[in-house]
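Hi everyone,

Forwarding the result from last night's run.
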Amino acid sequence: MPTDITSTKPVHSARDRLLDAAGKLFAVHGFHAIGLRDLASYLGLHAGSLYHHIENKQSLLFELIESGLSDLLHDTERRMKGARSPRERLRSFIQAFVAFHFNEKHKLVLITHEFGHLNEEQKSHLIQLKNRYSAVLRPIIAADYSAQGSTCGDNCLMTSTIITILFGQSQWYSIETTKPQLTETLTNIITGIIVQNRNAQSPASLRKIP
């Protein structure tokens, strides 16, 4: 059984503690609301000592978002290696996101809410990671449409819609649920959207994701 991404691993170094604290404070209070003095005070340090570990506050935010996206991408790819059918691959894709949703809540908030505070070079790098993440899902939808050789079109739009649903629902409300329950619910919802859209494009097709 695949192991989940986890943020509960032991934190040893001063830099690890800095990243952990910054992720929490930025996510809970907002990037602009937390200065380096606030972060240093939270850690029991002098503000000047933080510059031994980081360039500035913006670079710290970039590192947190980059590591979150990279971890999500790599865990998604790992989980999907053993999946054979489009349905299994879709479930594995969603399982990876749900694990991230539960275990990296602070980084999830930063990805969805604080991206706009980065500079253009940082944004460009992260957009490349986002595109790589989208590219993992796109062939699953293409297989369902039997359109592997087609241009992006509806496939890209559907991919973006599904990813928006995953990230959006995680921020819209908070309910008591488990990883298996959330995975099952999201898989059923997203499968239904894919099938409905496919049938709208081709009413004669009654095929479901295998």
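Residues 192 and 207 are 12 Å apart (CA to CA).

Cheers,
N.
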